[in-house]
Amino acid sequence: MFRTRTRSLVVSLCAAGLLAGCAGDGGGVQSQKLSTIIGRGKLICGVEGKLPGFSFVGPDGKYLGLDVDVCKAVAAAVLGDPEKVEYRDLNSSERFAALASGEVDLLSRNTTMTLSRDAAGGNGLSFAPTTFYDGQGVLVPVASGIKDLKGLAGKPICVESGTTTELNLADRMREQNIPYTPLKFQTSDQTFAAYLGDRCVAVTSDRSQLAGKRTSFPKPDAHTLLPVVMSKEPLTPATTNGDPAWADAVRWIVYGLMQAEESGITQANVDAKLAEAKANTNQADLRRFLGVEGDFGKQLGLPPDFVVKAVKAVGNYGEIFDRNVGPASALKLDRGLNRQWKDGGLIYSPPFR
Amino acid sequence: MAPVPPADPAPRPAPPPSPPWWRDRRIVPWVVQAVVGLLVLLLIAFLLGNLVRNLTAAGLLLSWRWLQQPAGFDISESVIPFNAQLPYWRALAAGLVNTIRAVLVGLVGATLLGTLVGMASFSHNGLLRRLARVYVEVVRNIPLLLQLVFWYFVVFLSFPNGVAAIQLPGVVLAKSGLYIAGFGEGLRWMGPTLVNGVWQAPVRLSVEFGALLTGLIVYSGAFIAEVVRGGIAAVPKGQWEAASSLGLSWFATLRRIVLPQSLRVIVPGLNTQYISLAKNSSLAVAVGYTDLYSVAETTLNQTGRAVEVILVLLAAYLTLDLLISALMNGLNHLVQIRER
Asked: Within chain B, which residues score under 50 in pLDDT?
């Protein structure tokens, strides 16, 4: 008796909810997440939080980095203000649960895109375009004299638990039949503390992360990256499978940053470009891209000029890269695979049409 | 005294009219119990229904097939053989065995330490008594996680490595662990040897295990010391005085007279401490020891099967704790006073 009544109550509530959902149809995009974020007035972004170059807290207490700039670009595009972001530091084991439970809206936390993380039967994530093509590397003290993976035979290697790094390490060592001892830690801080405490002769992670962490070592020059690249690590922002419209919005905001670089639109000249597009009706591509004509923004549930807002906030992809991890930063990483496709890299935005 | 003549039986009062059922002492408690029970059942049904509904909506019905898939990750130290090609359930089993190993050794160590410190707080030696107090007060007022991190990163990782390791006959203490001589391959007696900059020996205990064990023993030892102290204090003073008038020494009094009597007060308290120790062992993940929780965390990350992995964890720790509790209840039964 009680049970049937409860169930019928639930069913009728669902039906009511469904109807409400249907009633809103036709007015553009239905994204629960997007309306939640707009209602809340800020974006909650999951980041690593302690990784120089990608997401870390600067001297003035503000979050900085490539991953952080993606959060800012999304906040600027959706809410019109890059500072309306609340950052949550997540470790590698918490990140997917935090995203799945809705605790964070967007995961921009140097996360490798893989099949099992993407698949509905796996972690059920929905990946945006890759913002950093990385590979797994190994950092060793120069004094150890180790030159390749063979030199690590029988030795302890520090690794963060629950990462693809951990699996790749197991695979590569098994392939080459090199015995080793993995020492796993829950956070990157503990992992690197154990490495610096000399407990391991090597630490393995994404090459960019190793380069970033090395800048905060007491003696950065005493450590060197082995030339080996153990895996492909496309670091990619992610949302959940649950809200395709929100995933689309994030995807095209990130593509917008990449297309802006390709079209030569920078933080400095975006206003001039916008004025040029408004004045010149022949520049159809530019007009569509910057939201002067067409309804791309509306199709995504975003303001028409979302690209302008994003670029004005953080600059185009190239500017973000240079500022955070490129030559202008402490990491001094080469663009490498992260060049535009026209320059032989992998950064490629599909057309805005 | 003359027997009192039996009084005339008073006229029986007419039986009071039976109260309506909602005021009946025999019925009301049952109704209340039934309603509360029903509410609890409803809540559980709602929560389970909610879980199943949401998992179905996400296309993630409970499934256990992942247990058979190859784990793909390695475990640094395992009592039962394990490699990356073995299935997840083997990895979880290896983690469970590691947890049990830490808990068992921890229980014995903490009991010994706790008993000694508990006894020391009744010593005639003032220095020993105060040391015991200081140890208990310092240790139980600092979070265990902090202590584990201290033991691992500050103490154990400060040991010298390689050739510089502390070498005693048959035993080597290095940054990577404790190496003890034993029977190696082909049952040949082997001492610790340095091969290619890495120590090797038949018996090896990692510093991660050492740090976890030290942390657990020192922490639980402080609480057990208090339980033991309470137990000893519960034995009447007369027992001490009687023993010393018989000429028994302080230690003999404690061992033969006081401790046996205090056991029945100590054992129930120990039960709680033992269970805490078993649960606290899951903090191993902070010092890089691959216990059940650590393996489960990696498994959860690789498979995305959060609910199932957490269920496995819950079941494992619950079983472990219930087992400890059952054993301790048995022991408690043995040491209780048999009243006839």
From this structure: none
